[in-house]
Amino acid sequence: MIYFIIIGMAFVTMVPRIIPAFIVDKLIFRSWVNRWLSAIPFAALGALIFPSILTVIPEQQYIGLIGGLVAITLAYFGVNTIIVVLGAICTVFLLTTW
């Protein structure tokens, strides 16, 4: 009985995720909708990361802000994402070891 429940829960969670993948490929959106949709991952990532920037070291919040500014600057110049992350990590590490 428990296996049927697990299979049913898996089915219920997979269907809403799979159906849009088949439907969206056939839809043609206007250019402004495509631009808006392409910004969603960056906005979500920013919303997830920004609270952590402020709480890297609670006593010294400026360290997280400086690391965030380094990441923003590197990303603005089109540097590879891995380099952006490593740059922010190295900045926070260097500022916390001094």
Automatic annotation (TrEMBL):
Entry annotated with the keyword Transmembrane: yes
Keywords per UniProt: Membrane, Transmembrane, Transmembrane helix
Bilayer-crossing regions: 6-24, 36-57, 63-96
Pfam family of the protein (one): AzlD
Name this protein carries in UniProt: AzlD domain-containing protein
Organism: Paracerasibacillus soli
Taxonomic lineage: Bacteria, Bacillati, Bacillota, Bacilli, Bacillales
